[in-house]
Amino acid sequence: MTIGNSRNSISLPEPSLRRLPWYLAYVKLLRDKGVEYVSSTQISKEINVDASQIAKDLSFINIAGKTRVGYEVCSLADALEKFLGFGSQHKAVIFGVGSLGAALLQDTGLAQYGMNVIAGFDVNPAIIGTCINGKPVYDTVDFPSMQQKLDACIGILTVPVDRAQEACDDMIAGGIQAIWNFTPYRIKTPAEIVVQNTSIYAHLAVMFNRLGRNSTSK
Amino acid sequence: MTIGNSRNSISLPEPSLRRLPWYLAYVKLLRDKGVEYVSSTQISKEINVDASQIAKDLSFINIAGKTRVGYEVCSLADALEKFLGFGSQHKAVIFGVGSLGAALLQDTGLAQYGMNVIAGFDVNPAIIGTCINGKPVYDTVDFPSMQQKLDACIGILTVPVDRAQEACDDMIAGGIQAIWNFTPYRIKTPAEIVVQNTSIYAHLAVMFNRLGRNSTSK
């Protein structure tokens, strides 16, 4: 088994998978500083995850540490980046080019992490036919035909809540395999569709609530 | 105890708190359709959370359902919105006006959920002194003095990983009480600081990995 192909064949538990980008961020920092080796104990101190858990998480990506010195920093960074798919390009479209959707079309940072947002879709005639950051905005009704050419596998969902399920269904009908849901609506999808919810509103709710509690307890 | 003040005095478990925006989104949909009452069983079917859990979550916000008919939709929407703090304005600044930071400055949607992003801070002379979406971008070194006037309580962290801890420390020194961390770096903060990590990269990692697995299993 080679490292480059391993991501397709291993079923890593989601909590492990979600920790890997933390390790990658830290290991890249070390690489940029010219550090040669890092141990799971060192990563543990920095990331606040148990060292044995880190060793277990890293065992999934088929890279072995050396006794006493630990993992070779450059190899670990490369292996993590490949395993996570951040080095490949995954084509994505955005449904809902309102404020957040337009902001995500502007964000060139996603491409550096393997996400290539190639087009937006909306129902608003005022923005259909425009370009944002060089990315065209098409009419949602044209998605099935456009998708023949675009061949996107990821759909980013930033429509209003009352259109979330419909837009989600349209994306899946057009061949989208993974949905990145930014709405606070709980979309329903067939089991084979990958769904990730980025709950901006949940994060706001926690911050506001905890801030309110801190200010009364002072 | 009034509903308006209750958010400051109750320590709601974080998982409950994170579910409340889902309920709110659904209940607002019902309100817009003119529905008068909703039961926890109905919400349960829609949201895919156990009905008894929903009733428990909602018990924290001090609104009682009526036997047989359930919760009054308009009152529940209002109570949830107030409890979550989405009706108030919380002042925030963004540290790191790169691609993602600039995108968040563009996003007017946050203001509708109680988050008022008032300024950006960066170290890049090319963007210091500019405005994005009417929001000024200042020099990071001027944060302590600017903060006297701005009085922001939330800091949004969108700097490169190698500057994440430093920027976080600067924000806290300037009086920031909550940090919304968009970097994959695990920031270290005093216990009284509220931290929410929005792990965009973790979500990308999960999507890419599951997509790869699906395509080989087909």
Q: What does this protein structure show overall?
A:
Two copies of one chain form a homodimer. Chain A has 218 residues and is α/β, with parallel strands linked by helices. The first copy, chain A, contains nine helices and nine strands. The first copy, chain A, has helices at residues 3-6, 14-32, 40-47, 51-59, 73-84, 99-106, 143-150, 164-173, 200-217; strands at residues 37-38, 71-72, 90-95, 115-122, 131-132, 135-139, 154-157, 178-181, 194-197. In chain A, the strands form two sheets. In chain A, strands 5-6-4-3-7-8-9 form a seven-stranded mixed sheet. A two-stranded antiparallel sheet of chain A has the order 1-2. In chain A, a hairpin with a 2-residue loop joins strand 5 and strand 6 (135-139). The longest helix of chain A is centred in the first third of the chain and has 19 residues, at 14-32. The termini of chain A are far apart. The interface between A and B is large, with 74 and 74 residues.
How would you describe this structure in keywords?
218 residues, alpha/beta, two-stranded antiparallel ribbon, 9 strands, disordered N terminus, homodimer, seven-stranded mixed β-sheet, 17% strand
